[in-house]
Write a structure and sequence with these properties.
The protein has 242 residues and is an alpha/beta fold. It has 11 helices and 12 strands. Helix 7 packs parallel to helix 8 and helix 9 runs parallel beside helix 11. The longest helix has 11 residues.
Length: 242
Amino acid sequence: MEVIPAIDLRDGRCVRLVQGERGTETIYSDEPVEMAKRWEKLGAKRLHVVDLDGAFTGAPRNLAVVEEMVKAVTIPLQFGGGIRTIETVKAVLDLGVDRVVLGTAAILWPEMVSRCCQYYGGGRIVVGIDGRDGLVAIEGWETTVELTVEELARQIAGLGVQRVVFTDTRRDGTLRGPNLEATKSLALASGLKVIASGGVSSLGDLYALKELKEYGVEGVIMGKALYSGAISLQEALKIMEG
């Protein structure tokens, strides 16, 4: 299973939020490109980059930094945050990003997701499903829609998408542990490959997530646990790749 370090961008800096809420950020680095190089050097096989400014405003704001990252590392990047048009998807992929992560767009404009999969292949289009109390959260997690996480997963499975990133927003940035039951249910309900995100705080969480591999959970995105030193990337890789 993959261990994917997260780099969340806000005003060009590498930060982490608590439950995705504005004003809760901790700044971990003023040099996100150096952070990307650091994770690669420590063994990461992929990076998960989020444009928080883009998620809140509806259009990416940190693409220049993302382009620098792509040039600075050899491992693939998956990138999301404010990507809501086909033109933006193309612009991001043209930078050299390996996978685009769509969130709000997948709920509001499913036809766009379908077309992106046709144009670029379902392997390069990932849908981020963000859940709050079982419902789907959109627009930087500031709004929920009357749609359950599993309902959305079943819908997007028919659009050509191959995988989703699932985040329980109540756990993200809290080090309270991932929502294992919801992650498993999502994988079973949709038949999609699932990358778990949010809340990992201990090696025990990683062992528990690894048990979900047989259901279609293929990796985990880690943020605060790595940045705070609660878990080292080497420890996480040893468990999940072993």
